[in-house]
Amino acid sequence: QVQLVESGGGLVQPGGSLRLSCAASGRIFSIYNMGWYRRAPGNQRELVAVITTGGSTNYLDSVKGRFTISRDNAKKMVYLEMNSLKPQDSADYYCNAQIRVIGGQIYDYWGQGTQVTVSS
Predict the structure, then answer these.
(1) pLDDT tens-digit series, residues 48-77
(2) Parallel, antiparallel, or unpaired: how do β-strands 77-82 and 91-101 relate?
(3) CA-to-CA distance for 63 and 84, rounded, in angstroms?
């Protein structure tokens, strides 16, 4: 079994910062792309940021210059540094990873989500 566990969400004032973390654990042989998605009430889930094994990144246009995704391959973790937060960034944030399990195939895994609320 593989698990992704997020942490770091919470309530922050506009203009503030938060750092989300996601730890992968279990029968992991290798991890490929890792990313963060979000879903606000009434909205569809959207890709916020993704990072490849080699460190290449891609971001949702609305977060470029404010959010930074990074990963620690040795620790099997992915991070999302969020700065200059805006109320429209409020959402449930989900960690995602493509993982090859030991002795098996590549599957898409999701964390349970962490809530981010940007409000004064």
Answers:
(1) 999 999 999 999 999 999 999 999 999 999
(2) unpaired
(3) 9
